[in-house]
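pasting for ref
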Amino acid sequence: MSDLGSVHPEQITAITEWDHEADVVVVGYGVAGACAAIEAARSGADVLVLERTGGWGGAAAMSGGFIYLGGGTSLQKALGFEDTPENMETFLTAALGPGVDVAKIHDYCQGSVEHFDWLVAQGVPFKEEFWGEPGWEPPADQGLMFSGGENAAPYNTLATPAPRGHLPQMADKHTGDKGGGFMLMKPLTDTAESLGVRAEYDLRLQRLIVDAAGRVVGVVAKRYGKQVNVRARRGVVLATGSFAYNQQMVETFTPLLINRPAAAIEEHDGIGIRVAQALGAQLAHMDAIEVAIFADPQLMARGILVNGRGQRYIPEDSYPSHIGQSTLIRQNNEAFLIVDEAALDEANHTVSSSAAMRAQPPTWVAESVEELESEIGFPAGVLQSAVEVYNRHAENGVDPLLGKKPQWVKPIGTPLAAYDLRNHTGGFTLGGLRTDLDSRVLHVSGEPIQGLFAAGRCTSGICAGGYVSGASLGDGSFYGRRAGRTAAGA
């Protein structure tokens, strides 16, 4: 983490020498930074990217690669799915709330088809194949998947379900090790390089440089302990990622994530947020978090999830992050997955990217629900009641309590087992700088901070309370482009 005292802005009068200069300076070479660099360069600006690590990529290159897009993309149409921007907007407004930036969601949905076409034009490959099974991501190189619970209750009753998880095609993919994120970043950085974008690596942002009027005109960085001054003639774009690995910020804003970061990288220390705060930047949704539950979606869909009181609390075929958020935020991080032997065998014979999770044996096994209830330590009758009510309706293939889809509703038989999922969650932060539709960072007064732009997870993006897989790469790339164009014209 950067020095706490280093975020105060530097006055331009204190700078005696510039080490680097450019029209637009982009800080961070992940997906938001790459897209900002491309569009700034195409707008005629001389662009320099500053990256704190030894190469491009950031969290995006290490991710599975989902980009949340819809409204009728060519990939959706090719695979037979109908969608409209309005339908997408209805879903996202419900799924990402409460408190969503409705103007930003509308803007994002209206521009989603064009953004997909833009990514394809940069060389990002998408295979015309749909994966329809529950899972964190497709097991192979399929290009489209439901990635936000669109087809699960309650959202399938609010908007027509359409898959919007667009995944770049990656050969020899290994979930969690070698994912589609690389095939998103490689074409983008190749494009940026072809446009003359320069990059300087191993530079850590320290603070912003401002002129007498308060306009951002550059950044102070450090390389191997030496100060480096970088001048930005038109503007600075912050694309520095979240604050998931800043312990102090996590304790302050998202205490539920203390000691449980996931799906982020250690470079996500919140420095971009903090240097902008030092100029009076407005923040939004700093308490918002994405939460993963470390369990196999194939197993969860075939069983029932109960909380620490032995009660069901969410449709088990939901998007896994919705399950994770509900478990951590509303169920005191307590969950138990109940499955019978037949469901376990069926899941084990299903191809899935989550197969590695099944290597862990159940925590408890029993010949009856009563025995399993006792083994877990529930008060007598609570689990039996939950299973009895579920099975009574499952005989007719329905789940009137929570709305799980009929294809996954089957009575739970015996023998059966339970997985202890207490403290099996982790996540990353979603809040950050408030920006307008042109990716200008807003002051607490509501006015833009001159010369300062931002995109990606250092901003609040389109998410407020909920999350969908692909939202980070989606709004990061979308508003990264916007930041680059706006900064170039500043």
